[in-house]
Structures are given as structure tokens and as C-alpha cells.
Design a protein that fits this description.
By secondary structure, this protein is of the alpha+beta class. Among the domains are: 225 residues, DNA primase, PRIM domain; 95 residues, no CATH class. 44% of the residues lie in helices and 10% in strands. The chain is built from 28 helices and 16 strands. Strands 9-6-8-7-11 form a 5-stranded antiparallel beta sheet, with helices on both faces. A hairpin with a 2-residue loop joins strand 15 and strand 16. Helix 2 packs parallel to helix 6, helix 5 packs across helix 8 and helix 20 packs across helix 22. The longest helix is centred in the C-terminal third of the chain and has 26 residues. The N and C termini lie far apart (65 Å).
């Protein structure tokens, strides 16, 4: 079998047929058949039946799991990226944080390849027949019907089966399909064959599938039903455009039903363009896009009741970006580096029109700018970040009560640095059972103290939750722990709209005078680490502050398990945040903003702000009913701030930016 694999070869990355000259290369496997390859026509594979209670018995002609993976994974993938499975709630999840480069070597964990490329197109239609919903017997019966139906359309397919009886059917394509076209075909097939789970094809960012040879969560592997030789033949001689047209013709009734369902699905469309006090294009302020617009750009998912076609949806993105003060270069870079595959898929063209792709983007941008100039946004109250020396404000509303004396700013900074040095020295054994999140709360307090020039703070638990990526109930418990341990002191209890006022303190017995101040700047949790995890954040911080340069040193400094530290370093390396060299590990903070956007952190923060704004409105309404004195001073902005409630200022290019900016704003 190894000799056969070597003679057939595994295709490598090629240049995308959809990109114009000079554009970055896109993953496009070379599927041209070798001159010596002549395996004859592919016939429908025999039905595979798994006896109850027995393991899957495979034909030796299908080869080992490693051979199946090496021969098919890169050819079926939409891009050369794979996501390693992570156990979660009794199952396996495949997230962007666990994504790495796709190679011919079979991963040691369950692994799923990305279906779509960064341009929002796919090279294979992947059908997932889910046995967890209807059972293995129902999937087997429907797989027979589906394969027969596909052969009638002239399709050449590859089929595999999982240990639990689920099946995957792959339809490799000569020409890549845009997300909207592929999704429509798979949704229509799911209406005709109910065991098909259409979810993998519905998102350009998260759509992925386990290919032949991949490990299964229950043990065993995804096993080819098609012989390995026949599978390689199909991959080297994929389905032409005529087969896709035949599928669409035979699925016409289901496609019509699906379009009708999309129109009726949303009764109240969401606004697609954020508004600001002054037009962002006129004032020069750059604003974030709304969640609805971001979803179109990232996922390619839009409200069919509002947008009649993909071209209308893509113009909505362009118009929103223009109104938000973005430049054309900001849009183009996201189209080309993979951050916006949904929008990129709406601009995908066939080979003869590839040179016009940039022209279409530029034309749409010109039209969007013209539209924005003619229809300025409706003015609402605008909120701008204050300077770091402004009086502290809480996201829960209100201004921090003034300290009774004017502190020496230099002395305050010195105390905060001493407090931070003590924390770094004692935290590995002073916070037993408190978890890692409490470390990021202390860092948020230290950073906010430096930016405000004071050791005293009065932030609501929800404001601190946003800054640390935690839940407000968790923050409340952590503040209590820090108070009991002597790291902070409660000066004044909360009243009305004013949060508790605390001061940073050193616990009794702390030998702070003997500690050296750390080098570098202390930071709260950077947005990217909301997804990459607390251990990865601590590893990055220790490397950034030059407290360690090797994994062994990191284990000692952080007090974490070696396996956790090793996994964190691997994760950081996969996202180009850490570089390995003979001299040790080095960090690249300049990539943090890009990683945060790739991981969709901006949407999560916006949703958290919106949720807490709702809590704030409820609380203020209660105060207005029960305390007339407070009701008289509650301003409209305290009840609803269009900018803070719906959107948030995205991180600038400065890699040092953290969410404590919102604490001191």
C-alpha cells in the first residue's frame, strides 16, 4: 500500500484559479490525474452494514487509517487547516483556537478539516449523515438511497463510515463553489434526505468535517467504504460543473422551499448599519460594525427578508464599513487574509473573470461611499474614550467617589508596582482553589490603577467582568476572596448607582521590600485570550515580562501542570503568537489584535456589553421607583447609551490595548 501511495502521490498546495495576478495564493489542490493512473470507471460501492455490538470490519483494500488520511484529507479540505477536537460536555468540539496547519500525518486526536477556504469557497460538497438523531440503521438505509440518487445525477463520490454508524459522503468538484451556492445545495439535500446534517456547510468560519482516517471520540477511526484506489481516482478526476447543475435541477423544488423558509424566518429584521453622533466618515472616528454586519462578513449568513441576494448583502457590509469610517484597505485586507471568508465568497468569480474581482470590490466601495455621503446617519449621543487621567467611571454608571486627599501620583505608581511584584511572587500559593481567573482580576486592577494614577477603584462587578472575560458573579466572589486575603480593602460599600470602593493593600507578613519590580508593563487579559484560555494568557505574559524562556521555567514560574503549559505553547505557536528557537520562546504581541478578530472575540464582548446594559437599565428603573433623589440625577445616557449598549470601540493597532480602557473611560 505504501508503494501505491508513493506512485499516486498526494497533491500539494497550488495557486487559486479565482485570484487575480499578484494576489496571495489560495489553497487549491492539484487534482490532475497522473498519466499512469487508469483505474477505470467508479461503480457504486457495496452497502456497508455494521453488525450490532461489533466493531466496523473494513476491506483491506481501504488501507490503514493513516493511509486514508494522507490520501484524502488535503484533497477534500477547503484550505490547508485542520481543527483538533477538544472534549466538551460529553462530546467533541472543533474551534478556531485549536486550529493548526493540515499535513499528511494523521493527528493523534479527533480532527476535522475546514470545508471552506479563506475566500469563502469550497472544493468539496460534504454530506454528514448523522446517526445520533435517527440511529445507524436509518442512516444506512438512507445512504443507499442518497448514493443511488447522486449516481443518477452523474456524481462521482467517496463514502466513509464512523464507528457509531454515521456516514460522510464527499462530492469533489472541479470548480470551487461559493458558500451561498454550496449551502443552498446541502440545505436542499437535507430536506430531501432528513438524516443529512447541513450545519457543516452553513458557516465559512466554523464549517468542518472529519475525513477518512480521522480518529473518533468513541474509539476507532472514520473508515472508508469506497476502496482507497477508487477514492484517489475520484479525487484526481472530480465532478465537473455539469454535475453541480444536475444537482440544482433535481433539487429545484427543495431549493424553492428553502428560500421561502428563509424569507419567513425573520419577522423583525435587525438594523444593519450602526449610527453615531456624527458621521464617522466626516469626523474621522473609526467605529465597530454591528453584529449583524459582522456575521455577514465572517459567516456569509444574512437575513433573506432584508437582502434579496448575496450582492445586496455584500453592499450592506460595504456601506456599514464606509459609514463606520473604515478605509478600502481595511476591507480588502480582511477579504484576503481570511478574516472575512463570508464576504469573500460573495465576490468569488470563475477563472475568466478573476481579474475583475478587485474592480468589483473597488466599484462597490465607491458606491457605498457615495450612498453614505448622500444619506448621513441619524445623530444620537456619542461617547468617546476619555483620557487616562479622567475621573474613573464605571460601566455600571456613575463616577467613582472622590478620595478625601489628592494622592502623590508617583508614589501611587510605585505602590502599585510593589503590589504587582508581590502578587507575581505569591499568587501561585496564596490563591488555593480560586482558579486562574482571579489572577486576571488582580492584573486588571493593577493596570487600571496605573492608568488612573490611584490605588483606589470603584468599578462595578459587571465592568470588571468585561475587562477580565469573566461572569459578574465570579468577579463578586473573587473580590471577596481578595478582601479576605488582604490584597484589597473595602473602603466604602455600594449605594445606589455607586459601586463598592476598594483600595489595593498588601497582606500582613508580605516581604514586599525584598521584591524586585518586574520588567515591562503589566496587562489585564488581552481580548484574544478570552478564546485561547487563561493558561495561554499566563504563558504569554511570563514570556513577555521575561520571567521565563523555556517550558521548564514556565512550569516553575506559573505553578501550572507541564502538560497544560505545553499545550498552551502549542496553541500560541499555531496562532503565531509565540516563536520557538534555540535561544528559547519569544512572543509576538503585534499579532494579538488579528488573532482576536479571527477568533470572533469582538462579537462576544459586544454581546456581553449589551447584556450588562440591559441589567443596568433594569437596576436604574428600580432605583427610579424606590429612591426619588436618585431618580432625579439619572440621566438618559445612564439608561440607554446607543454606542455602549449596541457597539464597542474595537482594539486599535496598539497590541498593548486591553479592556481596562473601558474601566477608565
Amino acid at each position: 500500500m505504501d508503494g501505491q501511495m508513493a506512485s499516486l502521490g498526494v497533491p500539494a498546495c497550488g495557486v487559486s484559479p479565482l485570484e487575480s495576478a499578484g494576489a496571495p495564493a489560495r489553497y487549491a489542490p492539484d487534482r490532475a490525474a497522473p498519466a499512469t493512473l487508469d483505474l477505470g470507471p467508479v461503480v457504486p460501492p457495496p452497502a456497508f452494514v455494521q453488525p450490532a455490538g461489533l466493531q466496523v470490519v473494513v476491506d483491506p483494500a481501504t488501507g490503514s487509517a493513516a493511509e486514508q488520511w494522507a490520501a484524502t484529507a488535503r484533497m477534500l479540505a477547503g484550505t490547508a487547516r485542520v481543527r483538533l477536537g477538544r472534549p466538551r460536555r460529553g462530546g467533541i468540539e472543533y474551534t478556531l483556537r485549536d486550529e493548526c496547519k493540515l499535513t499528511d500525518r494523521l493527528p493523534a486526536k479527533p480532527a476535522a478539516v475546514r470545508i471552506y477556504g479563506d475566500d469563502g469557497t469550497c472544493s468539496t460538497i460534504c454530506l454528514d449523515l448523522d446517526s445520533t438523531r435517527v440511529g445507524a440503521d436509518a442512516v444506512t438505509r438512507e445512504a443507499k438511497q442518497l448514493t443511488k440518487w447522486l449516481f443518477e445525477c452523474g456524481a462521482r463520490i467517496i463514502e466513509d463510515v464512523s464507528p457509531n454508524g454515521g456516514r460522510h459522503i464527499y462530492i469533489p468538484l472541479t470548480e470551487r463553489l461559493r458558500l451561498t451556492e454550496a449551502r443552498e445545495i446541502v440545505d436542499a439535500l437535507a430536506l430531501r434526505f432528513p438524516t443529512i446534517d447541513a450545519a457543516p456547510h452553513r458557516s465559512a468560519r466554523s464549517g468542518c468535517i472529519r475525513t477518512p482516517g480521522s480518529r473518533h471520540k468513541s474509539g476507532g477511526h472514520q473508515q472508508l467504504v469506497t476502496t482507497l484506489a477508487a477514492a484517489i481516482d475520484v479525487l484526481h478526476r472530480p465532478n465537473p460543473v455539469d454535475v453541480v447543475q444536475a444537482l440544482r435541477i433535481r433539487l429545484a423544488p427543495q431549493i424553492a422551499v428553502r428560500r421561502a423558509q428563509q424569507v419567513a424566518a425573520i419577522a423583525t429584521p435587525a438594523p444593519e448599519i450602526p449610527t453615531a453622533g456624527d458621521d464617522a466618515a466626516r469626523t474621522g472616528a473609526v467605529r465597530a460594525l454591528s453584529l449583524a454586519i459582522t456575521r455577514i462578513a465572517r459567516e456569509g449568513i444574512y437575513d433573506a427578508n432584508r437582502y434579496g441576494s448575496p450582492s445586496e448583502a455584500r453592499m450592506a457590509v460595504m456601506t456599514a464599513a464606509a459609514r463606520a469610517g473604515w478605509r478600502l484597505a481595511d476591507v480588502v485586507v480582511r477579504l484576503e487574509d481570511g478574516r472575512w471568508p463570508g464576504l469573500a465568497g460573495m465576490y468569488a468569480t470563475n477563472r475568466p473573470q478573476a481579474a475583475k474581482r478587485r474592480e468589483r470590490i473597488a466599484a462597490d466601495w465607491h458606491n457605498a461611499r457615495t450612498f453614505v455621503a448622500r444619506t448621513p446617519a441619524q445623530a444620537v449621543h456619542s461617547h468617546v474614550l476619555s483620557s487616562n487621567t479622567s475621573r474613573l467611571k464605571s460601566l455600571a454608571g456613575g463616577v467613582r467617589p472622590s478620595i478625601s486627599y489628592a494622592p502623590d501620583v508617583q508614589a501611587e505608581h510605585q505602590f502599585i508596582r510593589t503590589w504587582t511584584a508581590a502578587l507575581l511572587a505569591y499568587e501561585t500559593h496564596r490563591f488555593p482553589g480560586a482558579g486562574l481567573k482571579i489572577r486576571w482580576l488582580t492584573r486588571a486592577l493593577a493596570e487600571a490603577g496605573h492608568k488612573s494614577g490611584s490605588r483606589y477603584f470603584s468599578f462595578g462587578t459587571r465592568a470588571l467582568a468585561v475587562a477580565t472575560g469573566s461572569d459578574h458573579t465570579t468577579v463578586a466572589a473573587q473580590l471577596k476572596i481578595l478582601t479576605e486575603l488582604g490584597w484589597i480593602d473595602l473602603i466604602e460599600s455600594a449605594h445606589g448607582r455607586d459601586a463598592d470602593t476598594y483600595g489595593l493593600t498588601l497582606p500582613e507578613g508580605t516581604q514586599a521590600a525584598d521584591l524586585r519590580w518586574h520588567t515591562g508593563t503589566i496587562h489585564a487579559l488581552r481580548p484574544a485570550f478570552r478564546e485561547l484560555g487563561d493558561v495561554a494568557a499566563l504563558v504569554f505574559e511570563a514570556l513577555e515580562l521575561q520571567r521565563a524562556t523555556t517550558i521548564t521555567e514556565l512550569v516553575t514560574v506559573l505553578g501550572c501542570a507541564r502538560s497544560s503549559v505545553t499545550d498552551a505553547v502549542d496553541t500560541l505557536s499555531a496562532h503565531n503568537l509565540v516563536h520557538r528557537s534555540p535561544a528559547g520562546l519569544t512572543v509576538h504581541p503585534e499579532n494579538l489584535a488579528r488573532v482576536a478578530e479571527d477568533l470572533g472575540v469582538t462579537e462576544a464582548i459586544a454581546q456581553q456589553l449589551k447584556t450588562y446594559a440591559t441589567h443596568r437599565r433594569i437596576w436604574h428603573a428600580w432605583l427610579a421607583r424606590h429612591d426619588q433623589d436618585l431618580a432625579d440625577v439619572i440621566a438618559e445616557r445612564d439608561v440607554y447609551d446607543a454606542e455602549m449598549n449596541e457597539y464597542w470601540l474595537p482594539p486599535p493597532d496598539d497590541p498593548m490595548w486591553t479592556l481596562t480602557e473601558l474601566l477608565v473611560a
